[in-house]
Description:
- By secondary structure, the protein is an alpha+beta fold.
- The protein has two domains: 139 residues, Muramoyl-pentapeptide Carboxypeptidase, domain 2, CATH 3.30.1380; 187 residues, Muramoyl-pentapeptide Carboxypeptidase, domain 2, CATH 3.30.1380.
- The protein is 48% helix and 14% strand.
- It is built from twelve helices and eight strands.
- The strands form two sheets. A four-stranded antiparallel beta sheet has the order 1-2-4-3. The chain has a four-stranded antiparallel beta sheet with strand order 5-6-8-7, covered by helices on one side.
- The longest helix has 21 residues.
- About 7% of the residues have low confidence.
- The structure holds zinc ion (ZN).
- Zinc ion (ZN) binds next to loops.
Amino acid sequence: MKRTPKAAARRRSKLLPATNAAISRSQKQQKKKIAKTEGESEVSKSIELLLIKRIASSEHDSCRPMNVQDLVYNFTPETKRYAYKSGFATGELASIHFPGALTLERILAAAGFGKVIYYPFPDAVKITSARKMSSFSFGTNSHMFESGLIAGFLSRETARRVEAIETHCVLNNSSFCQFEASRRIDPYLGLTSIGSFDKLSELLAEGIDAEPCSFNNDYYLISLLPLLQKPLLNSVSKLMYILGKRLGEERPEARSEIPKILRYLHIPGNVSENVHAVNLQYPHELSMSGFVLLSTFLLRGYIATALKSRSSVFQRVSKGAYMASIKIE
Ligand SMILES: [Zn+2]
């Protein structure tokens, strides 16, 4: 089947179920204002390549929290497939420019999988991570982006198509993650997903309460990039808004909860006195308009119910990185 950019865009737009959450006119206008500042060019291959280059050129000891992209990728069978395909493309790109097993090990270490043990067999590869990360339960194959990445990398390295599947996962009550790659695997067999908004918001709340851990920002962005592509970005932002609203209903203590949400998103920031504004200082590595949109929507959804307030976003670029201020009315 011929793949066109339009067809790809249509596929992305169908990934998340239509959400009828009321997003007010002012919020829509704000969204346009933010979105139009940069186009799809910012999610180009060159950024991805730069991130891969940085990761491939040094050792890493990153940890792996349950990030917002993990939640979105595990939401539906369609988002899981999208995660796998996106990871596959990233893995291929990495192998084209930085071939060799060391690159894959470094990428997986940056992804927070700890020390990677790599067992190559004539017709299969087993990759095990020894790091225990959390006790969340998502179901099987939770790290789909990484399964795809391994498959893409190894397909390119071995010059023949292989697929990968995660056979054990820390997000499915295992004490380690393990991936297997071979030509005979069907990566989509028996996929389970989070499936409901209730479960998704429950997991988000757990993620926000989890111990902070320092994740590699380059990898954070690589695994987020597929969600920052239009038109999918609009659906993901709406989803963030809905999840934020649910969180606000359950946890209206804004002064203590907002800093936790910021920490969860890996964005330094603060809440002003009397909770009139939330100020976000995006790190250089995460300073992209799509990420500003996604993260401020989660916070604005939270503000809408926790503080029963409308909000607006003001953003500017300072010293090459975004700063955003959410004003609470
Ligand atoms: Zn896993």
